């Protein structure tokens, strides 16, 4: 089924496209949260390899106009994945990226093929009929690996049957050509100004390689290695800094013991890391059954906990919550973990996951019909990280290895090109999935490019802001100024720098998470209640004295509903609600007897994964094979 202009009409107006190919902008018809964005559409060739065809595809576009004087031009944005749509992502990113560019440029993005309203890659119709696949971790057991392989076979074959007419029309090369069509339609100077993050760095590198003479300013932030993306079934070296990031989180925790409860559970970062590894081993054979009130019963196993820790490491704003929940787990109490990090279980494959597979798998060259052919890749994952070896295998690798589609166009060059203007690469020192070495290796391909080291944590420089980094980006877009090679920028706030102090008297710390308070009758804020000293973390009804609440009395009953910090919604905000004092809880259930993981009192420093500091250099595959 072809999801073209008919589906596009659901999100944006059907504006007339002038004969000269320009874009007519108008009001968006999806929720924009008050941002001054505009939407439009542009018809582009459906199949760039079929020059005899006049069939077209409508791209869904969105623009955030310059906010600081007349526009100096347009900067194209891509938000990664690959698989992130633009119409929704722009709402979250424009207020962050706009000021960094000086507010003097229009920010323009579009739903890339396979996402959102543009040739949506949808294997299951309706969405609820998708099946849960690859929830497990293939390193839990050989049986688990075989099960996930078989499930991935079904998934690949299902997508092949459903999308047999369009599955080969998505991919980075066509997306790059679509982007240049937009650049032409904008009617400016015909040159590409672009800011791509994460998966968007593959698109940026591909566009730069295909159109080197049309590059004006290109920022690639949170860099994936394009060689590994195209030429390997999986990307183990994307985890080259994952262990270092987790160990850095733990070191920062013990540097801030009054803000991190793990420091009250173990006596050193090394002993805490050993305790986490012991927890992982225990969960492989003894998963923890939990019965949250508003979620179905579920098992917290090695797969869930290890993959969620890595996902949480994307966002430094969530590190405080991670320290609270992990302290509870190490003492046998999963309550905080469930309440903060677990969303309701689902029996469907997330829509973005389908888009990621459609784009990523079609772009990959290797294919196999035997799980044993992935043994060497398996070993690479194991040698790269000891904490998260299964995270990047599972669904994406197993399904991609059996994928029925090959993108009609794939860039198969070596990326050793000279662009008309040099590219700015940005890499975080502690990025769990796009290591700094990827930025360095990709930069070695592009003549004249420079790597800026953002000495922060999380995935891309946006997640731990730095005035230094922002100023360099602004100057680059303004006049092309690049930082000197070797420049390192420090984040504005160190890890745990803005976290709340834990109470020293063992009382409860009450915090409100994204509470939206209106009146006493409707006020049902979300809270989490970590107990100091790293003991238990519990959820229950409680009474609290309220200092200020909109249209509410000074004292009210507040009922716990559900609290979590999502990977894409990690800010812990106190909104309209302040507690005058910490108060004891009246629990309506018994505290389970904890089964603690013992922290060693003395230990040698934990070793980083083999890939953490010695990912392949520029010699191999053109620029190393560490993607993200």
Structure description:
The protein has 628 residues and is of the alpha/beta class. The protein has two domains: 1-261 and 352-495, Alpha/Beta hydrolase fold, catalytic domain (Rossmann fold), CATH 3.40.50.1820; 502-589, no CATH class. 30% of the residues lie in helices and 12% in strands. It is built from 17 helices and 15 strands. It has helices at 5-8, 86-100, 142-162, 172-185, 200-210, 226-231, 242-255, 262-265, 269-285, 302-312, 319-330, 335-341, 351-363, 375-384, 394-401, 436-443, 467-479; strands at residues 38-45, 56-64, 74-78, 106-110, 192-197, 215-221, 288-290, 298-300, 424-430, 450-457, 488-489, 511-512, 527-528, 542-545, 555-558. The strands form four sheets. It has a nine-stranded mixed β-sheet, sandwiched between helices. Strands 7-8 form a two-stranded antiparallel ribbon. Helix 17 (467-479) links the parallel strand 10 and strand 11. The two termini are 31 Å apart.
């Amino acid at each position: 089924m072809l999801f073209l202009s008919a589906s596009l009409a659901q999100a944006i107006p059907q504006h007339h496209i002038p004969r000269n190919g320009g874009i007519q902008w108008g009001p968006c018809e999806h929720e924009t949260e008050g941002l001054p964005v505009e939407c439009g559409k542009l018809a582009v060739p459906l199949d760039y390899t079929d020059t005899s065809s006049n069939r077209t595809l409508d791209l869904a576009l969105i623009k955030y106009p310059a906010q600081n004087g007349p526009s100096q031009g347009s900067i194209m944005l891509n938000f990664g994945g690959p698989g992130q749509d633009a119409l929704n992502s722009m709402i979250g990113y424009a207020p962050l990226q706009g000021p960094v560019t000086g507010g003097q440029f229009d920010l323009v993005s579009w739903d890339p093929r396979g996402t959102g309203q543009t040739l949506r890659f949808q294997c299951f119709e309706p969405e609820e009929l998708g099946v849960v696949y690859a929830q497990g971790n293939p390193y839990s057991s050989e049986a688990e690996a075989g099960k996930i392989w078989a499930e991935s076979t079904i998934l690949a074959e299902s997508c092949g049957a459903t999308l047999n007419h369009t599955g080969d029309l998505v991919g980075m090369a066509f997306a790059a050509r679509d982007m240049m069509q937009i650049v032409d339609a904008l009617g400016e100077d015909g040159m590409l100004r672009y800011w791509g993050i994460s998966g968007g760095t593959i698109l940026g590198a591909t566009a730069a390689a295909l159109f080197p003479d049309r590059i004006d300013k290109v920022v690639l932030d949170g860099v994936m290695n394009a060689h590994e993306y195209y030429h390997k079934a999986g990307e183990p070296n994307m985890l080259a800094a994952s262990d270092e990031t987790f160990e850095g989180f733990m070191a920062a925790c013990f540097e801030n013991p009054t803000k991190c409860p793990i420091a009250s559970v173990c006596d050193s970062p090394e002993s805490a890391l050993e305790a986490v590894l012991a927890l992982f081993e225990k969960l492989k054979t003894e998963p923890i059954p939990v019965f949250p009130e508003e979620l179905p019963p579920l098992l917290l196993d090695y797969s869930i906990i290890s993959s969620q820790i890595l996902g949480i490491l994307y966002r430094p704003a969530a590190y405080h919550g991670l320290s609270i929940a992990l302290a509870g787990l190490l003492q046998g109490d999963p309550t905080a973990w469930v309440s903060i990090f677990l969303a309701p279980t689902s029996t469907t494959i997330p829509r973005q996951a389908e888009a990621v597979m459609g784009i990523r798998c079609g772009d990959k060259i290797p294919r196999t019909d035997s799980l044993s052919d992935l043994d060497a890749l398996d070993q690479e994952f194991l040698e790269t990280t000891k904490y998260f070896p299964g995270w990047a295998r599972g669904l994406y690798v197993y399904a991609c290895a059996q994928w029925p589609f090959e993108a009609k166009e794939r860039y198969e060059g070596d990326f050793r090109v000279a662009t008309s203007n040099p590219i700015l690469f940005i890499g975080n020192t502690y990025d769990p999935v796009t290591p700094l070495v990827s930025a360095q290796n990709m930069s070695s391909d592009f003549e004249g490019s420079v790597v800026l080291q953002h000495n922060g944590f999380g995935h891309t420089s946006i997640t731990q802001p730095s005035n230094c980094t922002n100023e360099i980006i602004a100057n680059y877009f303004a006049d092309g100024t690049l930082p000197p090679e070797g420049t390192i920028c420090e984040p504005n706030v160190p890890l745990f720098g803005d976290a709340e102090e834990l109470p020293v008297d063992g009382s409860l710390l009450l915090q409100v998470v994204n509470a939206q308070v209106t009146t006493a009758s409707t006020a049902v804020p979300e809270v989490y209640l970590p107990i100091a000293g790293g003991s238990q973390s519990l959820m229950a009804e409680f009474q609290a004295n309220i200092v200020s609440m909109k249209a509410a009395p000074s004292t009210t009953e507040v009922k716990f509903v559900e609290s979590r910090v999502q990977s894409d919604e990690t800010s812990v905000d106190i909104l309209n609600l302040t507690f005058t004092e910490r108060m004891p809880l009246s629990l309506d259930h018994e505290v389970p007897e904890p089964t603690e993981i013992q922290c060693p009192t003395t230990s040698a420093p934990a070793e980083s994964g083999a890939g953490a500091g010695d990912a392949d250099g520029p010699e191999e595959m053109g620029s190393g094979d560490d993607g993200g």
